[in-house]
Write a sequence for this structure.
C-alpha cells in the first residue's frame, strides 16, 4: 500500500482522538497560572514552620482526614491541602504561610476542579491504566504518521526555501496542500520530541519496573510503635538536608505506609512545577528512611524518566517552553483540520470529474 494512502487513512481514523488530545493539552498547559490568578489573596513566600503549623491544626480537627499537600503554582507561594470531612473530599488553598484562601468541595467543576478533570481526560481518558495504555498506543501511531508525512513532504534539493515559504495561489487543492506541507516541515521535529515524551510518560511505570529504575521507597521491616510525629516535624526533617528547597508535595502516613512522603524542589534541580527530590520520614520517630536527590546522577534510564514529564509539558523550558507546547497543540489541530479539508476537497473534485 502506498505511503500516501497509509498516511491518509490512519489520519482519518484517529484524527478525532488526536485533536481531543491536543485540545485538552492546550487547555491544561497553563492550568496552574489560570487557577492561581482566579484566587484572590496573599502570595506569601513558603515558610515551612507556618505551613507545618497549619497542617498540625488541621489534622487535629474532628472528623477530618488530611491526605496530602501539593504546590499550587510555580513559585511555591500557594498550596492545596487535600482533606476529607464528613465523607466529603475538599481542597483548602493556602498561601506559603498556611493562611487560608479558598476551601472547596472536589465533586464540582467550579474553580480549579475543571482542570483536574481535563488532566484526567488528557492523560488517561478517566480510564486509569487502561486509558494510559490506549493513549500511549495512539501516540505511537501518531509518531509513525508524522514520520510518514515528513517522508512525503521532504523537499528535493534546492526546493527547501519554496517548501518552507508561504503557499501562493488561489486554487483550493494546491493551497491546502501547500499549507499542510509547510506547517508540517516547520513544526514536525519539536512535535515529534513532545509526543515521544508523552508516549514514554504513558508507560513510565512499566519502564521503571522493566529497567529496575524505581525511586527507592522504604521497606517495612516491622510495625512502628508509639504516637505519630506532627506533620510540621516531618516537614522540617525532610527540608533540613536541602537548604533553600521548597515544598512540592507532602503525603501523610497510611495504614500500609507508616511514613511521610515529602517531595521537594531542591536548588539546581531540573525545572518543573513539582520537584522530584523525594524524602521518606518515619511517622513515629522522624528518621529519614530513604531519600532521592533529583540533582544527582542515577543512571541514564532514570535520567530519561525524570526528564519526560517536564519535556512533554514544556516545564523544562519555563514559560517559553510551555508556550511552545501550546503552539504544538494548536499545530496538531491545524494539521488535522488541513488534512481532512485536503482529503474532502480532493474527493469532491474527483466526484465532480466522474460526474461530468
Amino acid at each position: 500500500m502506498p505511503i500516501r494512502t497509509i498516511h491518509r487513512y490512519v489520519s482519518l481514523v484517529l484524527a478525532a482522538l488526536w485533536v481531543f488530545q491536543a485540545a485538552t493539552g492546550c487547555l491544561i498547559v497553563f492550568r496552574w497560572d489560570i487557577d492561581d490568578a482566579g484566587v484572590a489573596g496573599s502570595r506569601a513566600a513558603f515558610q515551612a514552620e507556618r505551613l507545618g503549623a497549619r497542617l498540625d491544626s488541621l489534622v487535629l480537627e474532628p472528623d477530618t482526614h488530611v491526605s496530602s499537600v501539593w504546590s499550587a503554582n510555580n513559585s511555591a507561594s500557594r498550596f492545596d491541602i487535600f482533606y476529607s470531612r464528613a465523607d466529603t473530599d475538599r481542597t483548602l488553598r493556602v498561601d506559603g504561610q498556611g493562611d487560608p484562601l479558598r476551601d472547596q468541595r472536589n465533586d464540582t467543576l467550579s474553580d480549579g476542579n475543571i482542570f483536574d478533570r481535563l488532566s484526567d481526560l488528557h492523560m488517561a481518558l478517566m480510564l486509569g491504566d487502561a486509558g494510559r495504555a490506549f493513549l500511549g498506543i495512539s501516540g505511537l501511531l501518531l509518531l509513525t504518521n508524522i514520520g510518514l508525512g515528513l517522508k512525503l513532504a521532504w523537499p528535493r534539493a534546492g526546493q527547501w526555501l519554496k517548501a518552507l515559504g508561504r503557499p501562493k495561489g488561489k486554487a483550493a487543492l494546491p493551497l491546502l496542500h501547500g499549507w499542510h506541507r509547510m506547517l508540517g516541515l516547520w513544526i514536525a521535529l519539536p512535535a515529534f520530541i513532545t509526543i515521544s515524551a508523552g508516549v514514554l510518560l504513558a508507560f513510565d511505570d512499566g519502564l521503571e519496573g522493566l529497567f529496575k529504575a524505581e525511586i527507592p521507597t522504604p521497606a517495612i521491616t516491622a510495625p512502628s510503635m508509639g504516637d505519630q510525629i506532627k506533620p510540621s516535624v516531618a516537614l522540617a526533617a525532610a527540608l533540613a538536608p536541602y537548604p533553600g528547597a521548597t515544598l512540592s508535595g507532602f503525603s501523610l502516613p497510611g495504614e500500609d505506609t507508616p511514613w511521610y512522603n515529602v517531595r521537594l524542589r531542591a536548588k539546581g534541580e531540573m525545572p518543573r512545577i513539582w520537584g522530584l527530590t523525594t524524602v521518606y520520614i518515619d511517622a513515629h520517630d522522624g528518621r529519614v528512611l530513604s531519600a532521592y536527590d533529583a540533582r544527582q546522577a542515577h543512571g541514564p534510564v532514570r535520567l530519561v524518566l525524570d526528564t519526560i514529564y517536564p519535556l512533554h509539558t514544556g516545564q523544562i523550558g519555563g514559560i517559553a517552553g510551555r508556550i511552545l507546547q501550546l503552539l504544538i497543540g494548536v499545530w496538531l489541530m491545524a494539521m488535522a483540520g488541513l488534512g481532512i479539508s485536503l482529503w474532502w476537497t480532493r474527493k469532491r473534485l474527483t466526484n465532480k470529474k466522474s460526474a461530468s
